[in-house]
């Protein structure tokens, strides 16, 4: 399947982010497989999966395109989504159809600028579609200029400049769609919790919408309720953004 055919197959649909960490209360060895099977049953057009191990599990279980990434946390940086070529190679080897990488202007643990990895991936794997996770319009422009096949504001809320947010920036996303449509696929990912908001993104120009926590992480859904009902005393986003340890490769 060509990159165009792959992107066309995702157009207008729901992509479900199926991820679980060993310290999540819902963790079992086959949890991501059940998530992916449920997503396919529901009519999702694709899966976003994390770590070589979980990508391989999902690829063996469902017949849907997989956007792969690998979260690697370090205390000296906010860059954690597929930050190195080693991580890229591992998720390609695991069977990812699309590779997601951090394409922000942040500094990595290795001392590089995160978005510089895009050029390396496109040079070494020109036929592998790249999903650029960005936090603002400037980073989306940079990713499109450097050959990203997909851009999405996945990291809005996960950088120092966007840390204190309480929802998606629909205005920024609309500008991203208007400016970059035709140059690359523009998808919405991050802070989408209702079907109505997903539809709003399609109306604004999204090629597809990725939803994770609202569908596949019931402990975080419950924590959002507890946070609001408790008068915002216990910020549920701290749990959503937490680093995780003991990852299974």
UniProtKB/TrEMBL annotation:
The keyword Heme does not apply. GO terms for molecular function: N-acylglucosamine-6-phosphate 2-epimerase activity. The gene is nanE. Pathway: Amino-sugar metabolism; N-acetylneuraminate degradation; D-fructose 6-phosphate from N-acetylneuraminate: step 3/5. The keyword Magnesium does not apply. It comes from Kribbibacterium absianum. Belongs to the NanE family. This is Putative N-acetylmannosamine-6-phosphate 2-epimerase. It is an enzyme of class 5 (isomerase). Pfam families: NanE (PF04131). InterPro entries: Aldolase_TIM, NanE, RibuloseP-bd_barrel.
